[in-house]
Design brief:
Length: about 180
């Protein structure tokens, strides 16, 4: 399993998109979106899109409340950022997300030309950045976002998820 981002040539210098010193602030914003997702019964995962040191879009997972299998936090945030900026190319943006993106969301980050992906906790079962696949490093992709793990809030991210699943098991013992 990879611990460090690849060194391929990105579209934009990720340091100009979001600096590591900004990670805490933006990951906390993503985490707040994740908490709100739990309020409507969705797995608490949150995301924020950052450009020029400020947030242009933020979203929580809405799969349950919207009955939409594609309503992951990252997809909603990417769509809202594109709408807010009036363009589909987000090559000057960073995606912050509490949990390692799945294959769909990592693919969407590539399609949106996202410059940098920062996530707060790995997803050993479905993470497509470094855990079960390395889509952002795939040489056949036409664009490769830089990425980094921001582990400082990992405990908070994982506690939010485990508390949610404990609650869900209590209220719906038959749930998968
Ligand atoms: Zn996803």
């Amino acid at each position: 399993m990879k611990d460090r981002p690849h060194s391929g040539a990105p579209f934009a210098d990720p340091a100009s998109i979001a600096r590591p010193s900004d990670d805490d602030r933006f990951m906390r914003e993503a985490l707040a979106e994740g908490r709100r997702a739990a309020d409507h019964g969705d797995v608490p995962i949150g995301a924020a899109i950052v450009r020029d040191g400020s947030i242009v879009a933020r979203a929580g997972n809405r799969r349950e409340v919207d009955a939409d299998p594609t309503a992951h936090a990252e997809i909603i945030a990417i769509r809202e950022a594109a709408r807010a900026l009036g363009r589909w190319r987000l090559s000057d943006c960073a995606l912050y997300v509490t949990v390692e993106p799945c294959a769909m969301c990592a693919g969407a980050a590539v399609l949106a030309r996202i410059a940098l992906v920062v996530f707060g906790a790995p997803d050993e079962k479905a993470g497509a950045v470094r855990s079960v696949a390395e889509l952002l490093d795939a040489t056949w992709m036409n664009h490769r976002p830089r990425w980094r793990l921001y582990p400082e809030l990992r405990d908070e991210v994982e506690r939010l998820l485990s508390d949610f699943f404990v609650m869900q098991r209590k209220s719906r013992p038959e749930a998968d």
